[in-house]
Amino acid sequence: MNQFAKDVLDGLSATPKRLSSKYFYDEIGDKLFQRIMSLDDYYLTRSEYEILSNSKSQLLKIFGAQKTPFNLIEFGAGDGYKTKVLLKHFLAQNADFKYIPIDISGNVLDILETALKKELPDLKVKGIQNEYFKALDQLDKSNERNVVLFLGSNIGNFTGDQATTFLQGLYDSLKQGDILLIGFDLKKDPNVILKAYNDREGVTRDFNLNLLNRINNELGGNFNIDKFKHHPIYNPLTGTTTSFLVSTEEQTVEIMDKTFYFDAWEAVHMEISQKYDLKAIVNLAKEAGFKVLNNFYDEKKYFVDAVWQK
């Protein structure tokens, strides 16, 4: 039994039921998320793109201090839309670096590497399909500085304890002097946040429901997606956005010879997206062991890209 199957069966056997958002990204899921990033309601991508565009020169001075060579390692690279802002600038400045995108989706890595060969033929790039820490273990233990990009507020998909554990693990995997550029979505008007996860075009709904289709296609499930509704909520007290799929009626679903029972209006936990304030970000860096070097904001202060160092 592969890990996807194990996680699905374990999650749907739990109380309450849950599915992992890391499995959103198959070929269809990748395309849906690219659509999400361009939606008017989804401010996160625009905000971070603005930050990287305005801060690229300052970031290069930090990453390649005294023009030293470095590895630019990106966790969850996706299609590289925002990262290309940095890649183009770094190449134009003759920076000595290698780009190493890491993603769990081999499909999206293939698309990215093909696009980069056309757009930036001088770029040294080597993608790794794996989970993050396993991929770091595959890297050559050279003396070059590692600069890890963890953009898009991906840290927000962890609970507080999970985020601390993840960042402590990252800290332990890095060498002294290595850099982390990490994106955080900031607390703001709750209506602005909620619309980003319940867009008017229904693309985020389709993105969540696509995981049920993936289970049907890869694990022989028989989900009827018309019997589930996408339902996100935002708690401004905790800063947590939570997405659910809710069964609209009493039903059973069969997956790999197992039967799962759903009550009417029973919810399946799909994803969290944590929003932060600056105090919480500083505390997170401290708990993980990192030193905060700088914070870069978009004009609206919707988002921050923080630079930390081991």
Structural account:
With 310 residues, the protein is α/β, with parallel strands linked by helices. It has two domains: 3-40 and 190-274, no CATH class; 45-187 and 276-309, Vaccinia Virus protein VP39 (Rossmann fold, 3-Layer(aba) Sandwich), CATH 3.40.50.150. Helix content is 40%, strand content 25%. The protein is built from ten helices and twelve strands. It has helices at residues 3-13, 27-37, 43-63, 83-92, 106-119, 132-138, 160-173, 190-196, 203-219, 278-288, and strands at 70-75, 97-103, 128-129, 145-150, 179-185, 228-235, 240-247, 251-255, 258-262, 267-274, 291-297, 303-309. The protein has a seven-stranded mixed sheet with strand order 3-2-1-4-5-12-11, with helices on both faces. It has a three-stranded antiparallel sheet with strand order 6-7-10. It has a two-stranded antiparallel ribbon with strand order 8-9. α2 (27-37) packs antiparallel against α9, α3 runs parallel beside α4 and α7 crosses α10. It is globular. The mean pLDDT is 94.
Q: Can you write the helix and strand succession as a string?
A: HHHEHEHEHEHEHHEEEEEHEE
Helix content: 25-40%
Which strand order does the major sheet show? 3-2-1-4-5-12-11
CATH class of the largest domain: Alpha Beta
Strands, count: 12
Note poorly predicted spans: none
- Determine the number of helices (DSSP H or I, runs of at least 4 residues): 10
Could you say what the CATH topology of the largest domain is called?
A: Rossmann fold
